[in-house]
Design brief:
This protein has five helices and seven strands, in the order αβββαβαβαββα. By secondary structure, it is an alpha/beta fold. It has a single domain (23-154), classed as Glutaredoxin (3-Layer(aba) Sandwich). A five-stranded mixed sheet has the order 5-4-3-6-7. Strands 1-2 form a two-stranded antiparallel sheet. The N and C termini lie far apart (48 Å).
C-alpha cells in the first residue's frame, strides 16, 4: 500500500512540473547534426516519413516548397524505412528534395511518437511543440499554423 501511495505521489509531482521543450539530436545524410536547441529563434518542422508511404511522398513537394520559401523555418525529414542511406538519398533526389534527410528506422522516430505516417511536428522558435499531425499536410496548412501561433505569442 505504501508503495502505491509513493508511486501516486511521484506521478502527481511529475504532473505539476511543467515539461521542458522536446530535445533531439539527428544526423542527416550529409553528416550534419541537427539539435532542436541549435534552432532557437527559428521554426523547426520534423516530418517522419517512409518511401513506401503514398501520403508521405505526396506531401514532400509541399515540404520542399516550405523549405525554399521560408528562411525562418527548417524542415527535417526523418525516414523510418530502415533502408541503406544510398537508397533513401536516391529516392529523395528523384523528388528534388533539398531539405535535410535523416535516415533511420522506427526507433529513431520514437521521440516523436508517430501514430502513423506521415507525422509532422512543428516547433516554435523557443523549441515548444505547437503542432502535431498524423497524415498529409500542405504548405498552406503549416503557414496558417505559424501565423496563428505567432499572433497568439504577440498577445
Amino acid at each position: 500500500m505504501t508503495t502505491r501511495i509513493s508511486a501516486l505521489l511521484a506521478t502527481l509531482l511529475c504532473l505539476s512540473i511543467p515539461a521542458s521543450a522536446t530535445t533531439f539530436s539527428l544526423v542527416d545524410i550529409e553528416g550534419r547534426n541537427h539539435q532542436l536547441e541549435n534552432y532557437r529563434g527559428k521554426w523547426v518542422l520534423v516530418n517522419v516519413w517512409a518511401t513506401w508511404c503514398p501520403p508521405c511522398v505526396a506531401e514532400m513537394p509541399e515540404l520542399e516548397a516550405l523549405h525554399k520559401s521560408r528562411s525562418d523555418l527548417t524542415v527535417l525529414g526523418v525516414s523510418v524505412d530502415g533502408e541503406p542511406a544510398a537508397k533513401v538519398t536516391d529516392f529523395a533526389g528523384k523528388l528534388n528534395i533539398t531539405y535535410p534527410i535523416i535516415v533511420g528506422n522506427l526507433s529513431i522516430a520514437q521521440p516523436f511518437a508517430p501514430k502513423g505516417f506521415p507525422t509532422t511536428i512543428l516547433y516554435d522558435g523557443n523549441g515548444q511543440e505547437v503542432f502535431n499531425k498524423t497524415g498529409k499536410i500542405t504548405k498552406e496548412e503549416i503557414t496558417r499554423v505559424i501565423k496563428q501561433a505567432s499572433a497568439a505569442r504577440r498577445q
